[in-house]
Specification:
With 334 residues, the protein is α+β, with helices and mostly antiparallel strands. Helices cover 35% and strands 28% of the residues. It has 9 helices and 14 strands.
Length: 334
């Protein structure tokens, strides 16, 4: 019989073991991923910090830990209310009866989240966990974001001679900012509807390009800038398991609609990959919205998914039902 209890310190080591075992399965499919996340001492501090901050649950079978689940509390998460996010290292379970374990853990932790005003729930799953995606689709979740990686080997494709490709320098900050604005307009449109922050301040972009904390490649049709690709050492919001000193992360890419399908994006990507290899990187990562049809088609053609993130948005009116239905109680309802 499965028992769900609060996550406490004594479960840290076993929880880390569960995640590491699961991560090793993913690395069997994609050995390009960083090896360091197979080490319990790397995972334990991540789990400890999350458990100390927000708590969570464990699943026990005859006092043996068979699963755990923890999540961040995030303000204004895809809306005006709080949400809860469980990263890929914030949950794991044994392979046997895994869907049932997750059903029971989510039943309990979601009750806590809603009681704490969290009406948007999101999880990131490792790329080989297709069964768990189906399990969460059954729980009302939908796909939101895909994290993917590739080697830094260049892609064999002829250079589109009608265009000029070059690295951006500090004097190109305004040009990069305008293309970033076009990307944000695209992401805010149908069917993605992703609301981003304002485009990066031009002065900040100029500083990043000068200090090379941001690397950008531009494509021109004559004198007209028509595409850009930006890379950094890490990407905010990307999956933890791609984060590594030998990873270069794509943090922006856009081609004007009338110039798509001409090989520009692949050429920009190749420029990044050549630079990444020369600077000791072993892999390139990207994360993108699954509803970004144009972007998804390109990224999946050249990158292999390693994480899938799913999301569920609850009706905030359930909050008033606390006293009427007592839906937040930990005991099972009849």
């Amino acid at each position: 019989m499965l028992t769900i209890k609060p996550f406490v310190e004594k479960y840290l080591g076993e929880a880390a073991q569960l995640f590491v075992a699961n991560y090793k399965l993913l690395r069997q499919e994609n050995p390009l991923l960083p090896e360091k996340y197979e080490e319990q001492q790397v995972i334990i501090p991540l789990i400890r910090n999350l458990a100390d901050e927000t708590g969570g649950v464990v699943a026990l079978k005859e006092d043996l830990l068979v699963g755990y689940m923890l999540g961040f509390r995030i303000p204004y998460f895809k809306g005006t209310s709080y949400g809860a996010y469980c990263p890929e290292w914030g949950h794991a379970a044994i392979v046997e009866t895994k869907p049932d374990i997750y059903h029971q853990m989510y039943r309990h932790i979601s009750r806590q989240w809603v009681a704490n005003g969290c009406f948007t729930h999101a999880f990131t799953f490792l790329g080989h966990e297709k069964e768990m995606l189906d399990t969460f689709f059954e729980n009302g979740f939908g796909l939101l974001v895909i994290d993917a990686i590739r080697s830094v080997d260049v892609i064999g494709q002829d250079f589109p001679s009608a265009f000029t490709i070059r690295p951006a320098g500090p004097d190109d900050a305004t040009t990069v900012s305008r293309l970033e604005y076009e990307l944000q307009r695209h992401l805010a449109g149908s069917p993605i509807f992703l609301l981003e922050d304002e485009p990066t301040n031009v002065a900040e972009l100029r500083r990043g390009l000068s200090e090379k904390t941001k690397k950008v490649w531009l494509a021109f049709a004559g004198d007209k800038p028509v595409a850009y690709l930006q890379a950094e050492a890490s990407a905010f919001g990307a999956a933890q398991i791609v984060s590594d000193t030998h990873t270069v992360s794509i943090t922006g890419a856009y081609t004007l609609p009338e110039y798509r399908g001409r090989g520009i994006a692949v050429t920009l990507l190749n420029e990044l990959l050549v630079d990444a290899a020369a600077n000791g990187s072993q892999r390139c990562s990207v994360d993108f919205e699954s509803a970004n049809l144009e972007g998804k088609h390109f990224w999946l053609a050249h990158f292999k998914p390693v994480c899938y993130s799913v999301i569920r948005r609850l009706d905030e009116n359930i909050a008033w039902a606390n006293s009427r239905f007592k839906v937040y109680q930990d005991e099972e309802q009849p």
